[in-house]
Amino acid sequence: MSAELLIYPALFVAIFFESFVLVTFLSAPARRRRAGAPAGGNALPTVAVIVPCYNEETTLARTATSVLALDYPADKLSLILVNDGSTDGTREVMEQFRNHPHVAIIHKENGGKYTALNAGIRATDAEIVGCLDADSFVEPSALRHIIPCFEAGVAAVTAAMSVHEPKNILELMQYAEYLFGIAQRHTLASINGLYVTPGPSSFYRRAIVMAVGGFRTGHQVEDMEMALRLQRHGYTIENAPRARVYTTAPATLRRLFLQRIRWISGFLRNVLFDYRDLVFSPAKGALGMLVLPIGLFSLSASVIVFGTIVFATSADIAQAIALREGIPLAYAYLPASFAFDWFYFPTTFFMLLVLVTIAAWVSLAVLGKQISRTPGGLARGLISFLLFYGLLAPLWIARASVDIVLHKTRSWR
Amino acid sequence: MSLVTRNVLIALGITILIVGTIALSIDYLGKQRIEELAAIESQIAIDTLSLETQFLLLVSAPCESATSTSLASELANLGDRLAYAEQELGSDNREVIELKKRYTLLEIRDYLAAKQLAATCGQKDVTVLYFYSNAGDCDNCDRAGYALSYLRDTYPDLRVYSFDYHLALGALETLIAVTKVKNGLPSFVVNGKTSYGFESLEELMTRFPKGTLSTSTPL
Asked: Which InterPro entries is this protein grouped with (chain A) (predicted)?
């Protein structure tokens, strides 16, 4: 089988899906959501923000402070800090907030993030519960943008997540990726196509979460499992693109790989095993017929395409080196002229398809930045993403796939 | 029709439009390349005819007036572009084959003109006839071709003519018969002396008349 037979269908699907997202972005439901105003006045539901913590001594104080600084009536907002058996100084940091009138603190034995979330949910009677990771920070206006999204039938609302102060190449790469995610999540929410309510910051109707049984381990992606369960029960998941939340992105390759392997293997385990009935389910609309099937296809395609390109490129390089064997290096490896000659410009079908795919992706990242009004420069993030993401992502996808085959579960950190 | 179905159809239409536009663009650029090659060939055909006419006019005149060095570099440039077009469009592309035949004819005519020039004026250019194959029956042809390109670019007095051994062209078949080259590719005819195979650049250089390459002025 030639490489083209594997690569071209993948690129076709990629362009199709990006076109679909762009068209849906311009459609009336998405436009209406972007035009929505933040909630005003004091006639607002009660909200409890739960922060599950396991060894988060370095970031917890800032996270808690950002919640307490939310622009929301103080008597309707509470913060629940849940210490999930931390072994560092998390307990001491939490205790600094003990005397705050709207803060509740729970210390429990380590049982995993989902147990901490359930402990927090059981400890409140607020109408809305927010789940915020202890390494994430909310903008003061975030809750005012989230609350209006809770219309009838809406069980959860996701926020616009971006990377907090990206510095190194990996963080910059993720900064661009998260901006793309903002546009995509906003668009897919307009057709109820979301399959994850991201852990760093999502809000739920407490009664619905209780009714469907609370959080489960969900193959280490409790946020994805909860979203799929809500979808199975026929609820709607919304998105508030102007509710800005900043999360701390993994700054090292090891941590990034651990996080992504957990995400990918969790997605595959949930979708292939526990929620297989949603895939190709006409009753689930865009989620069942489009988002989940294309998600599965793109994961397998990216590994196959990457493998094919690496194999073909390695063969080309080996051939080019063999061709130049014995020829003086200055002639063999330095260009004879730097003048541009269009005749030799490699205008291949593959290259142009890739350029279109990249252009559509960049457009969505720019749109994500615009609709969320996320601060920071995008150029360095885009360059980092375009240079490295395509090389790294197939590796963690492949590794996650191997883990599933071997029934291997990795630690969180 | 639901919003999702409508958007799926629109996205599908956009995707087909994009893929179709890319396919048409590739086809257009391929044709542009062919047209450029044809234009270069036409110019070289005129130059070759001009050189031959110069010969007829200058039979009794000083040899310094007749030179085909610039023509050789134009031929080399055309050869490089033709090789690239063949790689991009495929060696079975009808237009590429046509251009290749015309290019081969130009090479043979230039070779003959240069040979006559050398005989008449006593020039001591080194001429290499290089026979290769793209049919998969020549393992070392790519390496040999690259080594010859290096020698041609480095030593301007070296005249290299490359011929596809399997090209169905009467004049080429006659040249093969005249030079008595057998199907043991790659093969080289250096100043009339035939040799076969390719091992390395160093080994190839030993097949040239002693002192020929070293006394040339490298570029």
From this structure: Nucleotide-diphossugar_trans (IPR029044)
Which residues of chain A are within 8 Å of residue B81 when distances are taken between CB atoms?
343
Find, among A285, A68, A386, the residue nearest to B8 by Cα: A285
| CATH code, domain with B139 | 3.40.30.10
Query: Measured between beta carbons, which residues in chain A are less than 8 angstroms from residue B218?
Result: none
Amino acid identity of residue A341, one-letter, is: D
**Tens-digit pLDDT string for chain B (219 aa):** 899 999 999 999 999 999 999 999 988 988 888 888 888 778 777 877 776 776 666 555 556 555 555 567 777 778 888 888 888 778 888 888 888 898 899 889 888 877 877 777 777 778 899 999 988 889 899 999 999 989 988 887 788 999 999 999 999 999 999 999 888 889 999 988 999 999 999 899 988 887 777 644 444
Which of B107, B122, B137 terminates a domain? The answer is: B122
CA distance A315 to chain B (A): 15
Do B128 and B210 lie in one domain? The reply is: yes
Are B34 and B82 contacting, i.e. CB atoms less than 8 angstroms apart? no
Q: Is the dihedral of CA A307, A313, A317, A319 positive or negative?
A: positive
Give yes or no: residues B198 and B136 share one domain: yes
Distance from CA of A47 to the nearest CA of B (A): 33
Contact in structure between A110 and A78 (CB atoms under 8 Å): no
Looking at the fold, whether B155 and B93 belong to one and the same domain comes out as: no
Whether the CB-CB separation of A410 and A259 falls below 8 Å is answered with: no
Q: What type of residue is A227?
A: A
Determine, yes or no, domain membership for B25: no
- Identify from A352, A353, A355, A364 which residue to disrupt to test chain B contact, counting B C-beta atoms within 10 A and taking the largest count: A352
Of the candidates B3, B11, B146, which has its C-beta nearest A324's C-beta? B146
Question: Same structural domain for residues B112 and B198?
Answer: no
Paired tokens of B106: 């130009």
Name the closest residue on chain B to residue A28, using Cα atoms.
B3
B81 located within any domain: yes
B186 and B142 co-located in one domain: yes
Instruction: Give the best residue of B40, B89, B141, B146 to mutate against chain A (max A CB count within 10 A).
Output: B146
**B141 shares a domain with B95:** no
The residue range of the domain holding B141 is 124-219
Tokens coding A59: 């970031």
